[in-house]
Design goal:
The protein contains 14 helices and twelve strands. By secondary structure, it is of the alpha/beta class.
Length: 403
Amino acid sequence: MDRLIYLDNAATTQVSEAVLTEMLPYFRQNYGNPSSVYQFAGEGKKAVDRARRQAAKLIGAEPEEIYFTGGGSESDNWAIKAAAEAYAFKGKHIVTSKIEHHAVLHTCGYLEKKGYDVTYLNVDAEGKISLEELKAAIRPDTILISIMAANNEIGTIQPIAEIGKIAHEAGVPFHTDAVQAYGHIPLDVDKMQIDMLSASGHKMNGPKGIGILYIRKGVKIRSFIHGGAQERSRRAGTLNVPGIVGFGTAAQIAGETMEEKSQKERELKDHLIERVLAEIPYSRLNGHRTDRLPNNANFCFRFIEGESMLILLDQLGICASSGSACTSGSLDPSHVLLAIGLPHEITHGSLRITLSDGTTLEEIDFVVDELKKMIERLRNMSPLYEDFLKEQSKKQKEVKDVQ
């Protein structure tokens, strides 16, 4: 492959050089188990404590409110299942949305089979929930509200502070899946009244296989993995010290560079969106135009299949996706695109492009130029497009005849 243009940063990101440098000593030099009592293990324990502080600082939390996990999906599962169990004495009703990540949706589906009742909130055409619908959904037996901070497919950012306020006024714990938002947009657990928050290292130039669950002091939530006394007896298992160090370093760097990085990504994203919508007919942007992640652009192109587009892009060394990496290979249309009101035939022509601070203007222009050619080529092979053009021609003729 002559070139690689990586535009799938919502799926995963490249581990930064600074993060890798910090991690390496804990594989071979300071490899002691941080739960051990001898001196050699002390370096690992110090590193874990430092990473906990770094992870907490990024969201305005206290270090003792941060619990390290194996990733975002585990954190979501822990928050929802353990809260459901802990608050079952009060009720068995949970509120979430129709566009959550499957780590949330499938967990809620699992709980429904256990006798819990789940309300799935609708979203509008731009992917935002209705605060009024949220208020109306809360019942005396509601024990948890779980709404993602930003959507992994269309990038729409939810009104998290307002959701937190509504949840707290109703006395209901509020969990947010912030896997796509943590390290990319400002988050403050106190100002936003968040009780639990999930995040993952590999979405912000950290390593895979490491995440966090923030649990506010006083929130009644039980252990998820039973065994040893690690993570204050709430999450058993020998700590992944290199991964934890990587997460903490990535969190610190994200906090220090967020404003500059976001500005660069936003400018490139806006350029991408403007060119695509102006130069490729029958295309649409999915998600909110401004209240979206700085690096996310999600489009639908009528009369083509997204899979064909991805194959052609891959042949040019361009990495993108048609939705969540967790549903890659599925023939089913995106549940997110269906929830915002798109018909099945349009959802199949979706393309998600997610940038990094290493993406260049030249790369964006190259991708748009190639997209224009390949979409025209694919449409010319489509009987649906041919029928559409015939229908358009017929309508134009009828208009002329009337005139």
